[in-house]
Request: fold
Amino acid sequence: MNARRSAIILLSGGLDSATVLAIAKEQGFECHALSFSYGQRHQSELSAAKAVAKKHGVVSHVVTSLDLTAWGGSALTSDIEVPKEGKSDGIPVTYVPARNIIFLSHALGFAEAIGSRDIFIGVNAVDYSGYPDCRSEFINAFEETANLATKAGVEGDGFTIHAPLIERSKIEIITRGLELGVDYSMTQSCYDPDETGTPCGACDACRLRDAAFDQIKCRGS
Amino acid sequence: MNARRSAIILLSGGLDSATVLAIAKEQGFECHALSFSYGQRHQSELSAAKAVAKKHGVVSHVVTSLDLTAWGGSALTSDIEVPKEGKSDGIPVTYVPARNIIFLSHALGFAEAIGSRDIFIGVNAVDYSGYPDCRSEFINAFEETANLATKAGVEGDGFTIHAPLIERSKIEIITRGLELGVDYSMTQSCYDPDETGTPCGACDACRLRDAAFDQIKCRGS
Reply:
């Protein structure tokens, strides 16, 4: 049991953050979920986040509205098309400028206000291959900055940023989640679902997810 | 003239950020102002920000809505009373959890999206005495984290966080601003103005501002 009981969980509604919520619960934290309505084209992930938060018995679930469409710069927040031809070299156009530092900063404010010192985020090794803000260098630097930015950090009782999936593959993540009772049918990974929330099956997020489930099924058969 | 021409200026509508905008303009930057409607009780500062942005000829002025009242934790975003008895020891209750890291993170997203690599913020030595996120340790750590968090940072053409007032007193700031043509009658510093935007004259922000103007007047007479 952890002495510092409450934690903020960044919950997108995708499979990674659902797994992270289950991990934080297992570690004994009372979990407060934080989701963002930021103008993403996959708004239906927020319905998934609500269902996942409810299933795992969070203490509270805050959905904060942020307008990241004001400056665009990403396929997820503008008219730029979501690629559906498989992974390309370099950082994909689905990268949203500064998204994780924005999300973590809001989580930090929430944490400090309620006296929590632990923040969980579902960045992982697969995302690492594309997004700069999914790497451990970034997470470590953010933690250090958070402890200089805040009253709680300066007065000694600092923050810990937990990224328990950072070195895990999608298959390892799903396997761990299944052990912890995550119901992945509730989660939503697609970057470009239709109006009913049905995944496109072709974007990078769908491909990674589907490939991992296929492999798990093959192993199980 | 600076080779990297455009910059994001965090513009609250107070005297510090108005001065910073004038400094950035003088340095040759094309300025994009960014303000936040975050549930602050001194919403009238946004009207001041608009007037200041217009006077100094910004290229664009984005006002982003963020809800920092969801978790409160500050006299500026909740029912906690704004102190009017002069400065007390320690970090004041007007401290908003993680505010500057949140604001800088949004500025970073804006900067990256429009191809700017320079962000200006009006933190200063007077605030330093109270707020952890007005210290150079924090600003330097944020800059480092920003360059790990972003595509532009990782790909080499990194960001600079400019805090030109950080070592300046309020008197030095105002003196510099007057040289650069800042009209301080447009600015709004009060934490707790009435509905018409009239300053209370008693909160820490009013006291610091009024004392500085009084001293400048005395010197001038």
Summary: The domain at 6-220 of chain B is CATH 3.40.50.620 (Rossmann fold). DSSP finds eight helices and five strands in chain B.
